């Protein structure tokens, strides 16, 4: 008897290998992919402006980066003893306005260069719900715990999301014709919006993404791929044992399972031997002995460093430890 409904996912035409340059941007799942790629020492750059949830926010920052439109004092607000930028995550907030602008513009300039040379862009959307800052009437990426009375809440329509996707695609295609796109919907449940509202939000995102992809021409479709992270969580795993204690985020078992499918469908099999060796080395480095002064452990450490040196010599493109 079969108790699972596994999802069949076609392999991409443009898999990631160790020559690839990958940028991940968006929600928690984009951060997860970035962390996994970093673990296996791929050339990657993840969520430079922190976690972003909704399409309009991602479009705004990608456009700003491509145009190299620097942040100014007008883009900052002061609240709770900190300067914030409503276009980025709270982790970039700062008590010093000048330092914050230097940091934001340094990230922006670096992202511009990375986008120009990237081979793959992973974009993960978390929600279609957005907040509009009443003072400027602009949609924001993050409210930074500023009083909710200063914002109005609204949901992006399918048409608005499709427009954002079209803008992102046409902008980056002109900027970097070799770029491949991997889109996904975050499997994280945004229940603060409400159970019904969360499903409505995901439905808008899914409908918009598939509408956008289906209207691309045949050549463009080969460079755009939809990875069903949300569907794997909802229809394959579909059990609370695959969530963390908050019942919102996938737990480590679910993350490993979804990553395994991503690896099989989006990473070149030529990279697997290197990844296996790196995984073994990483586990060796993470090992904590009961007594690190023993001869046996010293021999283990010596052999581990020899393996690292051998792997680096064999594959000079790896930036190992």
Shape: globular
Span between termini: 47 Å
Low-confidence stretches: none
Q: Average pLDDT across residues?
A: 93
Number of beta-strand segments: 10
Task: Please provide a written account of the structure.
With 321 residues, the chain is α/β, with parallel strands linked by helices. 45% of the residues lie in helices and 14% in strands. The protein contains ten helices and ten strands. Strands 2-1-5-9-10 form a five-stranded parallel sheet, with helices on both faces. Strands 7-6-8 form a three-stranded antiparallel sheet, with no helix packed on it. Strands 3-4 form a two-stranded antiparallel ribbon. Helix 2 crosses helix 3 and helix 9 packs antiparallel against helix 10. The chain is globular. 32% of the residues are buried. The mean pLDDT is 93.
In short:
The chain has 321 residues and is of the alpha/beta class. It has helices at 28-39, 55-66, 97-117, 158-175, 195-214, 218-221, 229-237, 252-266, 272-286, 295-314, and strands at 21-26, 43-46, 76-79, 82-85, 120-125, 129-133, 138-140, 151-155, 180-185, 224-226.
């Amino acid at each position: 008897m079969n108790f699972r409904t596994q999802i069949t996912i076609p392999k991409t035409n443009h898999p990631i290998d160790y020559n690839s340059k990958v940028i991940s941007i968006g929600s928690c799942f984009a951060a997860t992919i970035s962390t996994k790629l970093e673990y296996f020492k791929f050339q990657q750059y993840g969520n430079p402006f922190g976690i972003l949830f909704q399409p309009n926010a991602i479009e705004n920052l990608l456009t700003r980066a491509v145009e190299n439109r620097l942040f100014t004092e007008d883009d900052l607000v002061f609240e709770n003893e900190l300067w914030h930028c409503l276009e980025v995550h709270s982790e970039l907030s700062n008590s010093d306005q000048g330092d914050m602008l230097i940091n934001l513009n340094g990230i922006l300039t670096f992202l511009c260069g990375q986008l120009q040379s990237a081979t793959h862009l992973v974009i993960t959307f978390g929600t279609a719900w957005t907040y509009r800052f009443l003072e400027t009437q602009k949609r924001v990426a993050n409210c930074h715990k500023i009083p909710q009375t200063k914002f109005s809440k609204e949901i992006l329509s399918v048409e608005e999301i499709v427009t954002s996707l079209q803008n992102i695609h046409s902008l980056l295609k002109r900027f970097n014709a070799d770029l491949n796109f991997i889109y996904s919907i975050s499997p994280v449940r945004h229940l603060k919006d409400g159970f019904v509202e969360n499903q409505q939000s995901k439905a808008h995102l899914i409908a918009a993404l598939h509408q956008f992809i289906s209207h691309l021409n045949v050549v463009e479709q080969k460079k755009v791929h939809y990875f069903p992270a949300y569907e794997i969580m909802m229809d394959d795993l579909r059990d609370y044992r695959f969530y963390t204690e908050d019942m919102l985020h996938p737990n480590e078992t679910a993350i490993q399972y979804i990553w395994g499918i991503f690896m099989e469908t989006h990473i070149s099999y030529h990279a697997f031997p290197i990844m296996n060796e790196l995984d073994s080395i990483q586990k060796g480095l993470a090992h904590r002995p009961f007594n690190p002064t023993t001869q046996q452990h010293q021999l283990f450490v010596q052999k581990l460093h020899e393996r690292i040196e051998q792997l680096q010599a064999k594959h000079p493109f790896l930036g190992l430890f």
